[in-house]
Write a structure and sequence with these properties.
Layout lengths: L13 H14 L9 H21 L17 H9 L6 H24 L1
Helix pairs in contact: 1-2, 1-3, 2-4
């Protein structure tokens, strides 16, 4: 799953995208029976979280280590950033995105066996 055209979002800022990723990952059930509707919905939630993390990463400038402070343009985005600015480092964002990607791949493999 992807959002947008690959550049920085014009509608949501980096903090809002992280909020979306958090919400989607949080509502996905931890254990589901492969092949069920619950498993399909969980896989979709984690895939959405993964794509949202990609959107956050689009705000990290080339050659930089983190999303710049000025990338937060909204009240929600600013509040997410201010609560834990360390979450906006490139390496941390990549680890989380890659983890979601791995979870989706595992869920897809389980679904194909069901």
């Amino acid at each position: 799953m992807t959002f947008g055209y690959g550049g920085q979002s014009e509608l949501l800022d980096a903090g809002e995208w992280l909020f979306v990723a958090d919400r989607c990952a949080r509502v996905a059930p931890g254990r589901v029976t492969p092949g069920t509707e619950e498993a399909r919905v969980a896989r979709q939630q984690v895939a959405t979280a993964e794509a949202a993390m990609g959107e956050v990463l689009a705000f990290v400038p080339e050659g930089e280590d983190m999303v710049p402070d000025e990338a937060m343009r909204t009240v929600r985005g600013r509040s997410v950033y201010d609560a834990r600015p360390g979450r906006f480092y490139r390496d941390r964002l990549e680890v989380i995105r890659d983890t979601y990607q791995q979870i989706v791949a595992e869920m897809n493999a389980q679904a194909s066996k069901a």
